[in-house]
Design goal:
The structure is a homodimer.
Chain A (H helix, E strand, L loop, with lengths): L4 E3 L5 E9 L1 H4 L9 E2 L10 H19 L9 E6 L5 H10 L3 E3 L6 H14 L5 E8 L1 H8 L15 E2 L2 E8 L5 E7 L14 H20 L8 E4 L3 H14 L8 E3 H5 L10 E2 L1 H18 L4 E5 L1 E3 L3 H5 L6 E3 L1 E6 L4
Parallel strand pairs in A: 2-3, 4-5, 4-6, 7-12, 10-11, 10-13
Antiparallel strand pairs in A: 1-9, 2-8, 6-8, 9-16, 13-16, 14-15
Helix pairs in contact in A: 2-3, 6-7
């Protein structure tokens, strides 16, 4: 480890990626890139929790099928979600009969899952890992905020939890995209205590991880075609760029935020999308598509998480953030 | 990976272990082995959640200090706990300034943390990992069951959540105990739906993981001095042994359960202890002490988890279980 960064010697490959989203996400600008869209966000299930579980399972199965494999060909499912005790991921793993490693790092979980999956493959311990995350607007609202029936108004700084699940199937070989390095994030607290302004809570963590990544790798932002944060949203992204700028790093031209990208302004989501499924559906659709096509050669994915619970907010705790960075490259620059 | 089992080529070492427990645990039979005991289970904090966080942090610091190191010498903290959104572990990581990987696998989290930590070290990605878990009786009761003030009676099959935190500091070298192999568990559901009988929910997962481990390694139970399950409790342990027996494996003489060991019958905990801190405090005290002293040479630690949430039980879901197995050996048999 150099600083906080791991370099993968054998460059694990992205064998397949899969994304499945709800109707609101499918009505957004990234619609053409998603692999599957729900007509109704209950997915024909009796509860939104069961719907999210089916979403999560569908993303994993989708990636496995896209790779022409079967669940028995996957050594480990590394998964996580936002629900208490990550029941979505573990109940999904119950159906799939794949050894399971449960992760929680809020909306940064996807980054953490990729890091552990890539390291297990690169070290020669396993051949394939399904790295999966999900979120669901209605399960998140019920758990973190208010009953939907109450019709509570969103604050101007709040983000809309993405209904969707994404899975990246990593393996020793296959495909033209590799995982090149990764920076494990630290928990950073700038004292933000407004649970409706998670972009502000996560921006410092994202900036810190990106600066650390650049330092550890000796790169500057020009090295990457895109630096893609998870779900900072509109305001959080501005803060992120300002924080980088105050350290002399101008990333404005390279930066994209999955939360900002997934919804259109007309869709009335004040700051954009969020949730553990946000970065995984956007990466596995739009960005992976571009890397497969060769139009993006080097990408730094930085999923960002706000580490709060309903209880921690009620007890007056501030909201620490975390961000993990994973660097992808296409074959000829691997 | 052979079946579900990883073999560590370079045999990562247990550099140090640390355990800190509450007053009830300190009144139990393992008292002489614990590193620190609280006089009061609020640890001088304003809430039990803050107390658990301080416990978690103390376990990590304790292990680092015991190894004669500083937090900057530790590359990653891999931690988890039972609270929603694992706030204990992430708030503890906020104070420690060590890169953080958040885990959730209920009371099997400690096993999962050890597997990921050992693989990252063995693969040459990091030099040292602090693998930590915790639980607290009062935070768990508040979150999963009833307010303490209600004085609800425990059912005969229920277990008492251990107040305690344990941390194992793994590294490339140091100490006479190594991590030799590990079996990643699958999520197993035998249809148990009684949230007060978690031993029964976890026993099938424990049996399945142990059988898989023996198959993958070509060993029989006589290979190990102890097969140590996490927190099956009295009844769950009996089920575990019966399930193994039905597959022709007699583990009765080798089996110990951390949940059964931590409390005395006089302490009126119907089935013994449980919680993400249970296996970590017992392993890092009693068992690590014996391995250090050379009286135990080969040990298979099998932390067990019940994958439920309050919501999943209310929605009528059954309780799937999971168990991860980690094999430790002392130097001369590494």
């Amino acid at each position: 480890m150099t600083g906080q960064t791991i370099f993968f010697k054998n460059k694990p490959r992205v064998i397949a990626g899969y994304s499945i989203v709800g109707p609101k996400e499918a009505a957004g600008p990234l619609d053409p890139y998603f692999h599957k869209r729900l007509r109704k966000d209950d997915f024909g299930q009796k509860s939104y929790e069961k719907a999210e579980c089916k979403l999560h399972m569908s993303a994993i199965s989708g990636a496995i099928i896209a790779a022409g494999l079967a669940p028995k060909d996957v050594d480990v499912n590394i998964g996580g979600d936002l629900l208490n005790q990550i029941i979505t991921s573990s109940f999904s793993a119950r159906e799939l009969d794949i050894p399971f490693v449960g992760m929680y790092s809020a909306c940064s979980t996807f980054g953490q899952a990729l890091i552990v999956g890539a390291a297990l493959i690169d070290g020669g311990y396993i051949s394939r890992a399904a790295c999966s995350t999900s979120s669901h607007f209605s399960t998140a609202e019920r758990q973190y905020r208010y009953p939907l029936e109450l019709g509570t108004q969103m604050t101007p700084t709040s983000q809309w939890t993405v209904t969707g699940a994404g899975c990246t199937l990593l393996g020793k070989e296959g495909g033209n995209v590799c995982v090149e390095s990764a920076t494990v994030g630290k928990v950073v607290d700038f004292g933000v205590s407004d649970a409706n302004n998670m972009g502000a809570a996560m921006a410092p963590a994202a900036a810190k991880t990106v600066l650390q990544h650049l330092k550890d790798t000796g790169r500057d932002v020009s090295y990457y075609d895109y630096i893609v944060t998870g779900d900072l949203g509109v305001y959080g992204s501005r803060l992120f760029l300002e924080l980088l700028q105050s350290d002399g790093v101008n990333a404005a031209e390279k930066h994209k935020d999955c939360g900002e990208m997934i919804f259109d302004k007309k869709q009335r989501c004040p700051q954009g999308g969020s949730g553990a499924g946000c970065s995984s559906v956007v990466f596995n659709s739009y960005f992976l598509h571009q890397m497969r096509a060769g139009s993006v050669k080097r990408l730094l994915l930085v999923p960002t998480g706000a580490l709060l619970s309903k209880l921690s907010s009620l007890q007056g705790e501030t909201i620490p953030g975390i961000a993990n960075a994973v660097s992808f490259a296409v074959e000829d620059v691997c």
